[in-house]
């Protein structure tokens, strides 16, 4: 596995002659460096950084080159490409994010094959896969990998120094007693500052999904945040400071090339928000440990019962399971079906098996139940 960067990525594609001509006057410093006249107007012949469609133009050129080199774009993700040679046991995955590329393969020679193909059209550099998009990848002795964001955490603690207050795992707003809220906490805070801190924490949640629920609740306050809401966000900073060595650990399969086992946990919190809406939470993992995807979000519609809320959460999870199953089939790593879902609501489990006599009380979300039952029957 390795990462590849394209040097001057957006400068590669030609600016299409079919578009309206684009003219620029060079800044004096640029004109001097290029030994050109700063008073002359120049026509742009290739894409430059700053044009709104430069990123897409680069992607199309990069995509077409990969396809011409024998890689197939997956239907599940237009930024994920695969090269499969089953008779030789070769599987190669190429995933691009803007101008950064991650390559993983079963064979070292496949990495060289890709680099040679890319070098015929682009200028590239390659690196060991130890960091990507600000996320550090630590390889543990057990074969697992640990994802952490040391640099962003350092920036967070520098900007918002921890208070040292002891905080247990933040799962929802800390101020549950309305009588304990003082008048100062009700005063509005600077929205830009609130969104800035929330944005930093949301990105850290990529490697720390244990703060996702707290951030999901905090996001419901982003239009008119108060000083009390901002204090609650700072509690998440304190929690991260106390647990800064933790990270997201992904475990390898017990057997090489063995079919994957998808295990999911789902739950819903009924009437969890002041506007009477409920809350959804779930996570997916291959095997028993190492959640590779998790979600915590406010439900969009008002549920009329705890069962209704749980069915909505389960429906959202099933949609993601279908996506993961199709994606794994495309990349040559099929999943052993059925996927296992842990659900703690007995009426939901009963409805997934048979409607029985509960159908009269479930008419308003019958379509969700039928969709889930169909997926259960199909395995």
Q: How would the blueprint of this fold be written?
A:
Blueprint lengths: L1 E5 L16 E3 L2 H6 L7 E3 L10 H15 L3 E2 L6 E6 L4 E8 L2 E6 L2 H12 L4 E5 L2 E2 L2 E5 L5 E4 L1 H10 L31 H14 L7 H8 L7 H16 L5 E3 L9 E10 L9 E8 L4 E8 L7 H25 L4 E8 L3 H8 L12 H12 L2
Helix pairs in contact: 5-7, 8-10
Plain-language structure description:
This protein has 379 residues and is an alpha+beta fold. Helix content is 33%, strand content 23%. The chain is built from ten helices and 16 strands. A six-stranded antiparallel sheet has the order 4-5-6-7-1-8, covered by helices on one side. Helix 5 runs parallel beside helix 7 and helix 8 crosses helix 10. It is globular and about 80 Å long. The protein starts with a strand and ends with a helix. About 2% of the residues have low confidence.
């Amino acid at each position: 596995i390795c990462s590849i960067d394209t040097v001057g990525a957006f400068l590669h594609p030609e600016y299409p002659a079919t578009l309206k001509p684009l003219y620029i006057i060079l800044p004096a410093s640029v004109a001097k460096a290029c030994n050109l006249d700063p008073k002359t107007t120049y026509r742009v012949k290739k894409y430059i950084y700053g044009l709104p469609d430069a990123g897409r133009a680069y992607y199309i050129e990069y995509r077409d080159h990969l396809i011409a080199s024998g890689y197939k774009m997956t239907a599940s993700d237009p930024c994920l490409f695969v090269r499969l040679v089953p008779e030789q046991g070769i599987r190669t995955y190429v995933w691009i994010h803007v101008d950064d590329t991650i390559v993983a393969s079963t064979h070292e020679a496949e990495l060289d094959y890709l680099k040679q193909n890319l070098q015929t059209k682009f200028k590239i550099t390659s690196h060991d896969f130890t960091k990507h998009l600000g996320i550090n990848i630590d390889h543990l002795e057990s074969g697992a990998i640990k994802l952490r964001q040391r640099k962003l955490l350092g920036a967070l603690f520098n900007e918002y120094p921890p208070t040292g207050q002891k905080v247990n795992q933040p799962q929802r707003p800390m101020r549950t007693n309305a009588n304990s809220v003082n008048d100062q906490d009700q005063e509005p805070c600077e929205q830009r500052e609130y969104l800035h801190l929330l944005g930093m924490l949301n990105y850290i949640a990529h490697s720390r999904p244990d703060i996702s629920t707290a951030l999901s609740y905090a996001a419901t306050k982003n239009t008119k945040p108060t000083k009390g809401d901002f204090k609650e966000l700072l509690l998440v900073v304190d929690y991260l400071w106390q647990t800064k060595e933790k990270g997201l650990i992904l475990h390898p399969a017990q057997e090489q090339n063995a079919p994957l086992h998808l295990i999911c946990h789902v739950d819903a919190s009924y009437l969890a928000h002041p506007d009477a809406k409920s809350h959804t939470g779930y996570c997916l993992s291959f095997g028993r440990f190492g959640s590779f995807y998790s979600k915590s979000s406010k439900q969009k519609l008002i549920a009329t019962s705890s069962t209704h809320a749980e069915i909505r959460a389960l429906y959202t999870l099933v949609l993601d399971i279908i996506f993961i199953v199709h994606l794994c089939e495309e990349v040559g790593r099929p999943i052993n079906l059925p996927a296992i879902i842990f659900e703690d609501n007995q009426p939901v489990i009963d409805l997934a098996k048979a409607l029985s006599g509960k159908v009269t009380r479930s008419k308003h979300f019958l379509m969700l139940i039928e969709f889930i039952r169909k997926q259960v029957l199909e395995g």
